[in-house]
């Protein structure tokens, strides 16, 4: 009987001990879990971190140096093929004002208000004047064009199309204009003061004309689009009648 009592007492005691462990609050285990995590993190920082940091820094440094070397090599390779800034622009000549009408043979051709005819070099995209670079001091020629040229108001004619519409006297293939038709731009501006139409009834039968301006210098392949005025009639000053 005494033995049974001891065994039973032991079972009861063990059961109570187990129950006491199971009845411990959940917060105790969470607290111990957090403590363990902090120990692991501190161990990584203090032991593993110092070992990995130099290795990572060396890898990053190597990658950066390799990228810079590739960039420098590419720049050196392309340095010989760099384009001049003027080749990247769309340049064109432009008459700054309309012509003063009527236009008579033997009389100086003027701009509106009796001013000199002004031709400017401009950026074809922005319309801003261009006053630097070799194009801004190029040699230019004033020519006479047929009035039917660019009747559809296109702005993409070719140099060949422009040249084909230049009107000259058949005898000697000379210009219909008197005085010097060649001038040099100065900082992108050229002034035309002395030109006038010659007296010749043969070519006057054509009736409508335009003035044009084109660059004569070879600018290493740079295209400067030609300029042209509006259409106009030329009257014979001697008879003061409109041509027909």
Automatic annotation (TrEMBL):
Protein name: Calmodulin binding protein-like N-terminal domain-containing protein
One Gene Ontology CC term in the entry: nucleus
GO biological process: regulation of salicylic acid biosynthetic process
Coiled coil: none
Residue span(s) of domain Calmodulin binding protein-like N-terminal: 91-237
Region annotation (Disordered) ranges: 1-28
InterPro entries linked: Calmodulin_bind_N, CBP60
GO molecular-function terms, A-Z: calmodulin binding; DNA-binding transcription factor activity; sequence-specific DNA binding
Taxonomic lineage of the native organism: Eukaryota, Viridiplantae, Streptophyta, Embryophyta, Tracheophyta
Taxonomy, superkingdom: Eukaryota
Record's signal peptide: none
């Amino acid at each position: 009987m005494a033995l049974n009592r001891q065994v039973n007492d032991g079972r009861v005691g063990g059961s109570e001990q187990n129950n006491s462990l199971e009845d411990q609050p959940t917060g105790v285990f969470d607290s111990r879990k957090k403590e363990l995590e902090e120990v692991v993190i501190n161990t990584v920082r203090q032991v593993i971190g110092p070992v990995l940091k130099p290795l990572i820094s060396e890898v990053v440094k190597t990658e950066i140096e390799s990228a810079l070397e590739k960039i420098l090599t590419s720049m050196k390779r392309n340095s010989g093929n760099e384009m001049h800034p003027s080749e990247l622009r769309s340049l064109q000549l432009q008459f700054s004002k309309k012509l003063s009408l009527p236009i008579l043979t033997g009389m100086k051709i003027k701009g509106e208000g009796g001013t000199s005819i002004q031709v400017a070099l401009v950026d074809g995209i922005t319309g801003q004047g261009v006053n630097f670079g070799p194009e801004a001091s190029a040699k230019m020629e004033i020519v006479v064009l047929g009035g039917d040229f660019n009747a559809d108001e296109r702005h993409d004619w070719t140099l060949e199309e422009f040249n084909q519409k230049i009107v000259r006297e058949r005898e000697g293939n000379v210009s219909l204009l008197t005085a010097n038709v060649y001038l040099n731009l100065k900082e992108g501006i050229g002034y035309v003061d002395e030109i006038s139409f010659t007296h010749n009834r043969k070519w006057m039968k054509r009736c409508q004309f335009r003035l044009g301006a084109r660059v004569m210098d070879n600018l290493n392949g740079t295209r400067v689009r030609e300029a042209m005025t509006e259409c106009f009639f030329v009257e014979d000053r001697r008879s003061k009648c409109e041509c027909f």
